[in-house]
């Protein structure tokens, strides 16, 4: 089920309210994501201690390290566990206390205008695949909801104090996942526009061609289907299945065939051809621009 933000909280994930937050300054809209790592005790995973720290309930006697930190008043908006579980502590419209003394692009106090995401981990070990997947999903959700202009690491905004998310956090992979999500969104929209245009041209059919037509081994099933039939009954469903499976999308070039095939069309297919050309471009765009 796609995640949704209501009143600053992601619906249907675990919520543990932290007392450590306050209002954001009114002139500081959310514009930054800050990625962190944390594990308590350091390099140990799965325990309840991060939740306890962010809610002021850490027992100083439970571990020698805790005696040093249990009085810290810290929190983050989100915490992503090794198994991908996402926990929210502070609503996004409030200011969580994750960055401390910090500066980004000349602006101090990054807590004022950022959302903090803690990934369960440390500076000396890889993060898990599901953590990257979940991080990319929440990043997309936050980008859709707030005007996020930049994503950075804690070590970039507090370089003398902090090292997280550390050298094992794979920024390149994270950014490739964000791009993949963007490409999928753009592709979904483009396929919808093509369907709408086919409907407008009354080329969208209520029922499929005969079963044998699907057995064609020709490209575009050109011996058994009209070009628009192939779009509707083969290409679009196939793309939709890949999108639903969150799979890598293929690169393709449909426009040359359609331009040729539509030469004899009586109706005006220029808009449709333009949409198909854009679709080709989306498929070959490795990096979808911001
Ligand atoms: Zn941090």
Automatic annotation (TrEMBL):
Enzymatic class: hydrolase
Q: What is its EC number?
A: 3.5.1.28
Instruction: Tell where it localizes.
Output: Cytoplasm
Keyword Cell wall biogenesis/degradation recorded:
yes
Q: Which reaction does it catalyse?
A: Hydrolyzes the link between N-acetylmuramoyl residues and L-amino acid residues in certain cell-wall glycopeptides
**Pfam families recorded:** Amidase_2, DUF446
All copies of domain N-acetylmuramoyl-L-alanine amidase, residue ranges: 18-166
* Keyword Cytoplasm included in the entry's annotation: yes
Q: Main site of residence?
A: cytoplasm
Q: Which GO molecular function annotations are given, in alphabetical order?
A: metal ion binding; N-acetylmuramoyl-L-alanine amidase activity
A GO cellular-component term linked to this record = cytoplasm
Give the protein family. Belongs to the N-acetylmuramoyl-L-alanine amidase 2 family.
This protein is called: 1,6-anhydro-N-acetylmuramyl-L-alanine amidase AmpD
The organism that produces this protein has a lineage beginning with: Bacteria, Pseudomonadati, Pseudomonadota, Gammaproteobacteria, Orbales
